[in-house]
Structures are given as C-alpha cells and as structure tokens.
Specification:
Elements: E1 2-5, H1 16-30, E2 35-38, H2 48-56, E3 59-66, E4 72-80, E5 83-87, H3 89-92, H4 94-97, H5 108-119, E6 124-128, H6 139-144, E7 148-149, E8 166-167, E9 174-179, H7 191-195, H8 206-220, H9 222-225, H10 236-242, E10 246-249, H11 250-258, H12 260-265, E11 269-277, H13 286-296, E12 301-308, H14 312-317, E13 322-325, H15 326-330, H16 332-337, H17 339-354
C-alpha cells in the first residue's frame, strides 16, 4: 500500500515533523513493505515556517524580536522568492506566556517580524496565525509597523481601555493573514470569549476585555472587525486585515505548497493527526483539511490523535473514517512522557487494521 502521512503538531509534545516520523516508524514496524510518503502539515500556528521550508526550500533568516512581555526572543522567517513567511507564535505564542498575563501580552514582536521581512526585500509577507498567548487585537503589531494612537498600543489589551483614535501606517508590501480560525474580533464567538480562557484570562474578565477590543474596533474599522479571521491569534487577524491583508485559510495555503491533493491521489490511504481531535478541528484545522483532500481524491482518511473527543457521527462529518486515541492506548502518563514512542505504537496498531500486509 501507499500511505500518505500528513499530521499536524501534537501541541506541547511533538512537532509535525516529529509526529510524521513517529507514525512512519510504527507503521514500518508492522507493515515494512508499504510505501510511506511523509508530509508534515501546519495550519498557520506553530510549525508553519518549518513545514513550508521543507516544502518550498528558500532561505531562513534568524532575527531577534520583542516577546509578549518585552523580552528578546529568537525567531525565524522564511524567504522563498519574493514571498516571506513568518509565524506569529514565535513572537507571541502561548509557550512564551505560559498561559498567564494575557492582558499584558503584546504582539509587537510579530510586527517586528513583518518589518524584518520587508527589510529583507519581500514583496509579500504571509503571516501564520495560531497558537498565540496574546489578546491585544494586534495593536502591538500595528505599533511596530508605525501606527500611532491616543492609548499605548504595545502594552497589551490592558493598556487599550478608552482608545478612540488609531492612525494606521501605509505599507508597500502585500500582506496575507494565514488563519486557522474564522471567528470575528469581538462578541460571543470572538477572540476573547472563545480563546481567552485557554490563555489564562479569568471568566469574570472576559466581558470587560471584549469591550476593550470593541473600542479598538471602532477606533480602527468596525466593519473589518466582523470579517472572518479577524479574531485569529487574539485579534492579530483584525490588525492585518485593517492593513489591507488578504485572508487565506492556513491549511489551504500549506496544502497547496506541499502538493497535498496530488500526493493524496497517489496514495491508497491517508493518515493525519493532532494532539486533540475534536469538533473544533472543523474550523480550519489540519485534520479537516487533510480529510477534505483525501475525500476529493476518493481515498479513506484515518486520524491518530493524543485524544479523540468526538463520536463516530461527528468524526464522519469531519471526513474521517476512524480515529485512534494515544491516551486510550497507552495512558496519559506515557502519552506525555514518551510521545514519539507512544505514537509509533499507536501507528503500528492502526497498521494492523488498515494495511493489506
């Protein structure tokens, strides 16, 4: 059999590249004659630059930017022809905040990444959005690119209260916001109420901070705040859209870059995976995008995940034939203590069911 292995990262434990390698190792143990095509994936969040570099080649440039609390952090941008790719999580990711102090966390460093890409000669900058620990509506990014306002833009959402005026800079570069969610900036399904709790914002603070982002939206462009993807990465999507960015689903951008559709047609079975496979995977996440490509190619798609949090009906709605849980097979302690080994064991078990050997 020809097997396409196209997982996302397993957040907090394995990169997409490591996950693909672990799945391949386990599969080969059980079905050594199968041909495996490893195709690590990303949706705009952590791993975006690495996956695209593997697919496109190009030049990696190391830079140092301001982290979410002002500390210097290392980051990497990818130059591939006239296009630069940057990963917002490298400058303001949840791994840098530890899920704390989201009210003070700034996206200034993401703006510095964009500025570094422009300085390197890029005509277009694609910003991967996802995995952020910030909730400042992209105000920090705007500040780094030259915006001014009547409130500090680089002090996190806590500093924005009472804002009434924002003067946006004029940029000569084309911007693309590669998002993994389609939520608006504010409201019941906006950045704060949907993703704030996982960034450490207490429940009782959510309405007030959503109100602050509403003030920012009015000061910049209320209509833009309602667009799909404006709520991505704590509102970074909103800032980019306000600067004229084109929105592109991150999974589709990566799928095109790696030739996912062509590779799915050449396979007999498609494997995907992520840390937690749940119904939110339908909102621009890797497993849904991979499953959609598999369906287009009339190939079955199977998911391997740290946890499977959907039933059979929801799974089929996501285009996945079967999903297998790492925690269910080996237990939580081993799943986190030896994620690569545990994922390889799970892949070997799946191969017993799905391989023709």
């Amino acid at each position: 059999m020809r097997i396409l292995v196209a997982p996302d990262k397993f957040a907090g434990t394995l990169t997409a590249v490591e996950a693909a390698d672990a799945i391949a190792a386990g599969w080969r143990r059980q079905a050594p004659l199968d041909e495996l095509d490893l195709c690590p994936m990303a949706d705009g969040g952590p791993g975006f630059v690495d996956v695209l570099h593997a697919a496109l080649g190009g030049e990696l440039l190391a830079v140092t930017v301001r982290g979410p609390f002002g500390e210097p952090v290392p980051a990497t941008l990818l130059l591939a022809g006239p296009t630069a790719y940057v990963e917002s999580a490298q400058a303001c990711g949840l791994h840098l905040t530890g899920g704390e102090r989201a009210e003070e966390a700034s996206t200034y460093g993401v703006g510095e990444l964009v500025a570094a890409a422009v300085a390197a000669g890029a005509a277009e900058v694609v910003v991967g959005l996802g995995g952020s620990g910030t909730n400042d509506g992209g105000a920090g990014l705007l500040a780094a690119l030259g915006a001014t306002a009547d409130r500090p833009l680089d002090g996190g959402v806590a500093a924005l209260g009472g804002i009434t005026r924002v003067d946006l800079p004029q940029l000569s570069v084309r911007l693309v916001a590669a998002t993994d969610v389609d939520s608006p900036l504010t409201g019941l399904f906006g950045a704060t109420k949907t993703f704030g709790p996982q960034k450490g914002i207490p429940e009782e603070r959510l309405p007030a901070l959503d109100g602050v982002l509403e003030e920012l939206a009015v000061a910049v462009d209320r209509r833009t705040s309602l667009e799909k993807g404006a709520g991505a990465a704590g509102g970074l999507g909103f800032a980019l859209l306000a600067l004229g960015a084109r929105r592109a689903p991150g999974i589709e951008l990566v799928a095109d870059a790696v030739g996912l559709e062509r590779r799915a047609r050449a396979a007999d079975l498609v494997l995907t995976g992520e840390g937690a496979f749940d119904f939110s995977s339908r909102s621009g996440k890797v497993p849904y995008g991979v499953a959609a490509c598999a369906a287009e190619a009339l190939r079955p798609c199977v998911a391997l995940a740290g946890q499977v949090l959907v039933g059979a009906r929801e799974m089929r709605a996501l285009g996945v034939e079967s999903a297998y849980s790492l925690v269910e097979l080996v237990g939580e302690e081993r799943a986190f203590g030896d994620p690569a080994g545990a994922l390889a064991d799970l892949a070997a078990r799946v191969a017993r069911t799905w391989s023709r050997e």
